[in-house]
């Protein structure tokens, strides 16, 4: 049931952090994305409470990272419960003003000014962009010795089975923001449009 609630978000976290698992051309960069080892690393997840972000937090923890979650304040209790080691409320202090020397930043939001995260990352570290459209910091990243990488999720049954075992044994869980019937699809769409998502919106086909 949990994997059914978030198959593509779960696979996105898996393919960014565990194993890409396919040879399809990357529409955003020349080379394939290659997940870095996370054991003992410090990982900052921006958009940590969202559909993709809350699974990135948990998969990074499972891979042995120390995780800093960045989200608006209402998500702090959830993210601590999901295993985040530290929390930054971006509405009170921008992450780039309080963090430095991070090994990996995962931006699970996208939009403007993703380049600011380069200031947070140590030389030899990496910036993973879940939505890379508009990122203009490639030259600066190269100067600083930071790898910038992205991937586009693909369906993959074997990976879902592997990740599903982590759901089954409680290592990770899918958080449900809200649930709607098919007849309420329009309300579900409105919910997604309001933003500040905490996990996934579920549509039930009754
Ligand atoms: N590469 C791929 O294959 C792939 C796959 C799936 C999704 N995506 C992309 O990934 C992105 C996230 O998707 P999603 O489904 O996780 O979205 P989502 O569920 O709407 O989550 C976005 C989260 O970001 C937070 N947020 C909004 N503005 C923020 C800001 N300025 N700083 C920090 N957090 C902020 C929101 O809550 P708060 O503001 O309350 O913290 C929310 O929890 C989208 O751009 C989507 O297109 C890419």
Task: Write a brief caption for the model.
The chain is an alpha/beta fold and 206 residues long. The protein has helices at 2-5, 7-17, 53-62, 76-81, 95-98, 138-144, 157-168, 185-194; strands at residues 42-46, 66-71, 86-89, 102-107, 121-129, 147-149, 176-181, 200-204.
On the 0 to 100 scale, the average pLDDT is 96
E-strand count: 8
**Largest sheet at a glance?**
6 strands, parallel
Span from first to last CA? 14 Å
Task: Describe this entry's structure for a reader.
31% of the residues lie in helices and 21% in strands. Helix 2 packs across helix 3 (53-62). The mean pLDDT is 96. Strand 5 (121-129), helix 6 (138-144) and strand 6 form a beta-alpha-beta unit. It has helices at 2-5, 7-17, 53-62, 76-81, 95-98, 138-144, 157-168, 185-194; strands spanning 42-46, 66-71, 86-89, 102-107, 121-129, 147-149, 176-181, 200-204. The radius of gyration is 17 Å and the shape is globular. It is built from eight helices and eight strands, in the order H-H-E-H-E-H-E-H-E-E-H-E-H-E-H-E. The strands form two sheets. It has a six-stranded parallel beta sheet, with helices on both faces. A two-stranded parallel ribbon has the order 7-8. The protein is α/β, with parallel strands linked by helices. The structure holds NADP nicotinamide-adenine-dinucleotide phosphate. Residues 12, 46-47, 49-53, 70-72, 75, 90, 108-110, 130-131, 151-153, 195-197 line the site of NADP nicotinamide-adenine-dinucleotide phosphate (NAP).
């Amino acid at each position: 049931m949990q994997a059914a609630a978030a198959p593509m978000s779960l696979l996105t976290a898996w393919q960014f952090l565990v194993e890409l698992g396919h040879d399809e051309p990357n529409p955003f960069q020349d080379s394939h994305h290659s997940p870095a080892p996370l054991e003992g690393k410090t990982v900052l997840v921006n958009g940590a409470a969202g559909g993709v972000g809350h699974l990135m937090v948990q998969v990074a923890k499972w891979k042995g990272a120390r995780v800093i979650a960045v989200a608006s304040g209402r998500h702090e209790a959830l993210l601590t419960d999901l295993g985040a080691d530290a929390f930054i409320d971006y509405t009170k202090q921008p992450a780039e003003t309080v963090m430095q020397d991070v090994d990996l930043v995962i931006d699970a939001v996208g939009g403007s000014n993703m380049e600011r995260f380069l200031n947070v990352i140590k030389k030899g570290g990496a910036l993973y962009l879940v939505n890379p459209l508009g990122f203009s910091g490639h030259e600066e990243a190269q100067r600083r010795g930071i790898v910038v990488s992205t991937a586009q999720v693909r369906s993959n049954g074997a990976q879902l089975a592997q990740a599903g075992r982590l759901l089954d044994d409680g290592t990770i869980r899918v958080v449900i923001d809200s649930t709607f019937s098919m007849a309420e699809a329009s309300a579900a769409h409105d919910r997604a449009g309001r933003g500040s998502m905490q996990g996934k919106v579920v549509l039930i086909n009754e």
